[in-house]
């Protein structure tokens, strides 16, 4: 069994704090189809905003293009109830100039991704990253 498979099961837990931990751990394994699908579900968790916020934070802190790709795919599909958590995570990730530059570069790269959801999300994120970046 792969290291991330137990976390895939934990992501379906009824307990919010277990889903938070699953999102944090799965962020290290972004780039695998089944992991990415579960991470997108956690970014739209209907039961708890904390799950959304902490999963988003973990993805953006990972400094990994695969993790940013999951976030970008979820961005345009975010329900109003979750958009605040995703936006807050993005603003926090852009606080340091070097982090904002890294995110901007990653978003530019994703604008040519093969997945339409990712491209659309990256296009929307480009403006938001620019707005959230320190001046």
TrEMBL record:
- Superkingdom of the source? Bacteria
The protein in question is named Uncharacterized protein
Organism of origin: Spirilliplanes yamanashiensis
